[in-house]
Amino acid sequence: xxxxxxxxxxxxxxxxxxxxxxxxxxxxxxxxxxxxxxxxxxxxxxxxxxxxxxxxxxxxxxxxxxxxxxxxxxxxxxxxxxxxxxxxxxxxxxxxxxxxxxxxxxxxxxxxxxxxxxxxxxxxxxxxxxxxxxxxxxxxxxxxxxxxxxxxxxxxxxxxxxxxxxxxxxxxxxxxxxxxxxxxxxxxxxxxxxxxxxxxxxxxxxxx
Length: 208
Ligand SMILES: Nc1ncnc2c1ncn2[C@@H]1O[C@H](COP(=O)(O)OP(=O)(O)OP(=O)(O)O)[C@@H](O)[C@H]1O
Ligand SMILES: [Mg+2]
Fold this sequence. Notes:
The chain is an alpha+beta fold and about 210 residues long.
């Protein structure tokens, strides 16, 4: 145990997903939330909601009153939007709050976080995730999602990990080493693209 790792350090594992995000903490807390964030749209919405921001199911339930964001796409933070970056940070903050992080004399426990990233996450998307974690956790480690699963299941050799999510389908072959780029593939078709194909536009319905 290192010097700074005292009883006051909370270790958390976070899976930031396109559709759902989860956290598992060293104090035994485990939570799953919907990856949605919303800000009240106007004065009327602010008066009704009485909170500056809603996260998860609460946000979905009040969607008509909110600027509602689902900030992840294909397993990564949506590109180019400040608001989506902010939304990801709110999801991370919300997840950590859910663990009942101790707040003593205005100084809170230290948070060490391990965050899963899709098999083929690019350098710049990892960088953006790191900056989203700033101010949320005191130290951050990014790990390949399929590798985290393989490690947890002790399936490190002769195993194929398949994770079909909302944004991506990830494949990772475990050959007894930390997976290289060659060992991992991410396909951009998963639950979301199936939903999109099932949504028949109204104008087409007339011809059925
Ligand atoms: N019971 C179910 N049967 C079939 N599909 C389901 C079921 N429950 C959820 N799904 C679908 O699974 C997907 C969500 O899976 P998951 O929570 O693993 O995704 P995610 O981790 O948020 O996404 P990603 O890993 O791509 O970022 C959604 O597309 C959802 O519609
Ligand atoms: Mg996932």
